[in-house]
Amino acid sequence: MFFELQHTARGTAARAGRIETAHGSIETPIFMPVGTAATVKGILHRDLKEDARAQIILANTYHLYLRPGTQVLEQAGGVHRFSGWDGPMLTDSGGFQVFSLADCRKIDEEGCRFASHIDGSKHLFTPENVIDTQRSIGADIMMAFDECPPGTAPKEYAERSLELTNRWLARCWEQYERTQPKYGYRQSLFPIVQGVTYPDLRERSATFVQRFPADGYAIGGLAVGEPAEDMYRMIEVTNAVLPRDKPRYLMGVGTPANILEAIERGVDMFDCVMPTRNGRNGMIFTTEGIINIRNEKWRTDFSPLDPAAPSFVDAAYTKAYLRHLTISGEMLAAQIASLHNVAFYLWLVREARRHILDDTFAEWKPRILEKITKRL
Amino acid sequence: MFFELQHTARGTAARAGRIETAHGSIETPIFMPVGTAATVKGILHRDLKEDARAQIILANTYHLYLRPGTQVLEQAGGVHRFSGWDGPMLTDSGGFQVFSLADCRKIDEEGCRFASHIDGSKHLFTPENVIDTQRSIGADIMMAFDECPPGTAPKEYAERSLELTNRWLARCWEQYERTQPKYGYRQSLFPIVQGVTYPDLRERSATFVQRFPADGYAIGGLAVGEPAEDMYRMIEVTNAVLPRDKPRYLMGVGTPANILEAIERGVDMFDCVMPTRNGRNGMIFTTEGIINIRNEKWRTDFSPLDPAAPSFVDAAYTKAYLRHLTISGEMLAAQIASLHNVAFYLWLVREARRHILDDTFAEWKPRILEKITKRL
User: Fold this and answer.
1) How far apart are CA A305 and CA B20, in angstroms?
2) Do B302 and A42 touch (CB under 8 A)?
3) Is B92 a catalytic residue?
4) What is the pLDDT of residues B245-279, one digit of tens each?
5) pTM for this one?
6) Which of A63, A82, A34 is CA-nearest to residue A133?
7) CA A233 → CA A148, A157, A198, A332, A375, distances in Å?
8) Is the pLDDT of residue B103 over 80?
9) What 3-state class would DSSP assign to B286?
10) Which residue of B39, B302, B317 is in closest CB contact with A325?
11) CA of A293, closest CA in chain B: separation in Å?
């Protein structure tokens, strides 16, 4: 994997860059739609690529490990061939899911024992086997196995957790070096910076991860309950320590505002379920502000969904029709909302990139933020 | 509306024709995907038109009357402008739904009192107000309000029911003539032939409906529990009486086999929820036979869904991936299956039409039937 830092916008830490992977290149800053089970919910691959213009998608190791399982993925020749998504992909380590979704029974030095949310079957994730699983999946970017404490964790817990995460990272890296890609192309492994909202822990973590000559570094454990201002401060603290010449990935974040604030502070990569999950619930992010499409006020609004937005659905469907579909519980509502929202997020990071390259990011950001965060 | 009978295939009653409506022309025989709430479940309009090549879709008066309601539809300027589907549309009368979906409390000479399946609210459908509602919806083809007895109804009930349907038809027609289209284009009204599986009742009904100079005639009350052979015989009996120069629409039918048998007996138009509903449940109609995609045997079948079928999803996705999505309860499974199945149905009627025009329908039909009805 290759990362080129192309430009840093005047008066900010906002960066434009380019990542090369075996499955194509990615222009940063970038938003990665979440494809949990190797499908971005509600969006056909063709539309994800050609309409929303996704450049890389994320899949969840926890979900793919349970279904279809590594055996099927290996027989298919990896997740790209299995799913038909031939662009770049990233997998998380499954850590976040076993602590949240699954019933993590026991966490100790070895790893985490958990019960599947599907059938209750018992499993163990360790730093080593999580790397093996990600080798079987075959994403271009793999993530280290970490513990992710809540955003309000007391310092003592945060510190103990960070130490465990660091020891796990060393084991992940060792397993990464001991193993080879299964499908003939490079897989990168990104370490994850933790430390809750404690600046000294974040600094310590951001220093520690650099022991490993990774292709990129991630910032984890944010947007998990702490105030947004704390998150922004942790990003600043962390990015001050992380190397400039590697991509920085802020995990699981966030709202359009979170993303712009993080871009301004030097983050290059994002993922979040918000555009799809909130879309399924009727929340539409538009170029004019945020719409709750269930609201009575859209009942007879026959104007296009978002005429200034780039997806074909924005001109093809009206607010009143989308409201009708949503109220009626029609699948098509989720399809339109998901495609629109994902296309909107990708449009937003493309716009950010354009303004970084133009050196107009600092002026553009507050103007666009005011528009798109308005509740309509 | 204009219908041109283009050709009848040698040795059969299978017909090829063309219907002209205000929203475009339709080549028959045709399958009409069902868009209950003005959406064919799981399929974006663009894909319905460009990929599946749908020429006309059906919407349900009962559903649209309840949601979004005629007031919203009128403000939008009719269902085409409301939904964004700009091709031909047909609405049923709501009769079938009030007898099945809704709780039809009381049926008498006046009409049917029923409780909404959504909120239990009380409503009355009469032959007159069902025409008014369809005027407000604005489909190109409207259907008469009829009673649809079960396929096993005893003759006395069938006869009484047919007489009520005939009186209702006269009232529908009167209301149709008394009212004007609301959006400046012609709306046709199709009477419906009933009579359960009693040849003399079907004949009497097919004669009666011709009192009304309609643009087309429908055959209702079939595929509601009677043996398929009875259905085919009723189609023969009915089509022997219906005029040759008007399109014939067999309502709510059916499997690919049902459709080919009915085409052979001179039917021109079909609708059925089967491709979408069964698709959502994992049943895939392919050019090689019928697949239950949940079956273990597809787990590691990485071949394309149906290489010989015309939808882009047929080459873009594999059986193993579609199985994974289905087993995982992913929305995308329903989207792929629905688009594939609808495209398959439309491909099948296009093939039928081609073989009718070629005079090879009689030879082609048994060959294709053998292939596509196989359980894989």
Assistant:
1) 32
2) no
3) yes
4) 999 999 999 999 999 999 999 999 999 999 999 99
5) 0.97
6) A63
7) 18, 20, 10, 40, 26
8) no
9) strand
10) B39
11) 14
